[in-house]
Amino acid sequence: MHHNSPLNPQCPIGRSLERVGEWWTIHILREAFLGATRFDQFQKNLGIAPNMLTRRLNALVADGLLEKRPYSTRPLRHEYVLTAAGLDFRPVLWTIMAWGNKHFSPEGLAIQLVDSATGTPAEPQLIDRHSGRPLTWPAFRTVAGPAADARTKSRYPVWPATTPQPTSPTAGSADAADAA
Amino acid sequence: MHHNSPLNPQCPIGRSLERVGEWWTIHILREAFLGATRFDQFQKNLGIAPNMLTRRLNALVADGLLEKRPYSTRPLRHEYVLTAAGLDFRPVLWTIMAWGNKHFSPEGLAIQLVDSATGTPAEPQLIDRHSGRPLTWPAFRTVAGPAADARTKSRYPVWPATTPQPTSPTAGSADAADAA
DNA sequence: CAGTATCCTGTCCGATACTG
DNA sequence: CAGTATCGGACAGGATACTG
């Protein structure tokens, strides 16, 4: 992608989407987590055109989410394996999955998370690692961090917030930056 | 999107991406969480072309993630507010943010999650709501659920897995479906 | 099997102009 | 202010053929 636009270049969501925002990318990562490593496996499982697969695979390698390494010389063949950064994407995938299961699976769950040992269904929940509390809004919110530039600071509240008490979730305040 | 392809139609990740997979969509949702409700706010904050914004907004409304409701008649004006399904997307956004912060913010954090009351930085972690255990692989895995069709069952293990002990994370087994 | 090369179509998207 | 209408370009993406 090549957006010169007003999009905040510091936004970590924006930076993530630059890597995985393309249509096929997350599907490819999902296949990688499912065990696919070879060109042919990705292609068959996704039904993606080979030129597209090449493009996306190379982009993922360039972005450091996949590592391309030879598993055979003569002829030279590569496999694509998740890097540490790529493996760290798993929680994102699982959170998306939970969201889809909750809202877009009216006929029941086709795919679900379970405890590998017991088979007990698991239900993903986000917590704060330090306090152990559920990571919910408005108990937690996004604010400008230490590396924020002027533009970011103008769009995100700097803690402590000037308006301490969070507004109600449904109260649509016209000015932004107080609801996240 | 209109992919007739082999993509598993039951996959909850696929179903989610059908709703939020387009380039602008997640950016728009982020702005909505930041407090934007009006056409003009989205446009200014994102630098998106108006026709595109209209398209994406309508798609989000059609998919039930935003609700379009009049805030003025004469002239008729609408605001776009997150529905329950839309609000449930917040954990996804925060998980993506955490991933971006960890891997793509070498200069330090520009935007971060904090405790609204104390300002203490929060660190998102995924756990299983029922057991309270960290939701990590291979302790947890994705398997075919009760509503899985034949195709899904063939691609995802049905618990209990035929190969009970999970393979090591780095051991790239050629056949898929045992690593997620 | 693991891609590369070509060609083609659709549409995403931006720019601009226009309207109540 | 909140969009709609139209135009054009870039490119994502599919289909196919080809290669070691």
How would you describe this structure to a colleague?
Two copies of one chain form a homodimer. Chain A has 180 residues and is an alpha+beta fold. Chain A folds into two domains: 12-87, Winged helix-like DNA-binding domain superfamily/Winged helix DNA-binding domain (Arc Repressor Mutant, subunit A); 125-180, no CATH class. Chain A is built from seven helices and five strands, in the order ααααββααβββα. Chain A starts with 11 loop residues before the first helix and ends in a 25-residue tail after the last helix. The model of chain A is unreliable at 163-179 (pLDDT under 50). At the A-B interface, helix 1, helix 2, helix 3, helix 6 and strand 3 of A face helix 1, helix 2, helix 3, helix 6 and strand 3 of B. Strand 4 of chain A pairs antiparallel with strand 4 of chain B. Chain A binds a DNA duplex (20 and 20 nucleotides) through helix 3 and helix 4.
Q: Tell me the number of helical segments of chain A per DSSP (H or I, 4 or more residues long).
A: 7
User: Secondary-structure element sequence of chain A?
Assistant: HHHHEEHHEEEH
Percent of residues in helices of chain A: 25-40%
Sequence stretches where pLDDT stays below 50 over 5 or more residues of chain A: 163-179
CATH structural architecture of the largest domain in chain A: Orthogonal Bundle
Give the amount of beta strand of chain A, in percent. 15-25%
Mean pLDDT of chain A: 88
CATH fold group of the largest domain in chain A: Arc Repressor Mutant, subunit A
CATH class of the largest domain in chain A: Mainly Alpha
